[in-house]
Write a structure and sequence with these properties.
192 residues; mainly alpha; 2 strands
Length: 192
């Protein structure tokens, strides 16, 4: 089963109506992951090439770079007081979520949890600056599930399978999505 003639996710740019004016390109992450999720529910399995296409799309648009303007935007008092009461799901508040590393967040939440939360009324209760920062950090958090399997496979190829997968997981846990992308690029260039 194929994806049609869409060799890149650029077609999403024209299809997307604006949701919030401050979402910028981060809204594309939702669109792409929604398409991926839809394809997977219909039986399509993404291969390394598909994941690499999406990673390249993210990289070309700067979606790996968080644009928070402040290193610890979530430590602000106003954000902190509201985020503790805003629940993304019954077990996890926004405050708890922003404290997590992207891999931990990806394990605890599904794409639907993020989507339901950011399109909800309670999301708008966050301070405006925090909403912008939260949105700009979403690409790192919610795309990790998509990138990690390809990065593990690529990393194993680069090290010629000399480490157990558990060690590879521990190494990759400490890397951001841009680093995972670069590992996939290195493996792709080495095999071509």
């Amino acid at each position: 089963m194929g994806c049609g003639n869409y060799s890149t996710p650029d077609f999403l740019i024209v299809m997307r109506p604006p949701v919030f004016e401050n979402w910028g390109q981060s809204a594309l992450v939702f669109d792409i992951l929604a398409v991926v999720q839809h394809l997977e529910t219909r039986g399509y399995e993404l291969d390394s090439s598909d994941a690499m296409t999406i990673m390249t799309f993210f990289f070309d648009r700067g979606l790996y770079n968080s644009v928070t303007g402040e290193k610890y935007w979530y430590d602000k008092e106003e954000f902190d007081s509201k985020a503790k009461d805003l629940m993304i799901n019954p077990d996890l508040s926004v405050h708890d979520l922003v404290q997590l590393r992207p891999k931990q967040a990806a394990k605890l939440l599904k794409f639907e949890d993020y989507k339901d939360f950011v399109f909800s009324e309670k999301f708008r209760k966050l301070p405006k600056g925090s909403i912008t920062a939260y949105i700009s950090n979403l690409p790192q958090i919610i795309s990790r599930k998509l990138f990690l399997p390809s990065a593990v496979e690529s990393f194993l190829k680069l090290i010629h399978y000399r480490l157990p997968i558990l060690c590879c997981d521990m190494i990759l846990d400490n890397l951001g999505n841009e680093d995972l992308y670069k590992i996939c690029l290195a493996a792709a260039s080495k095999s071509s």
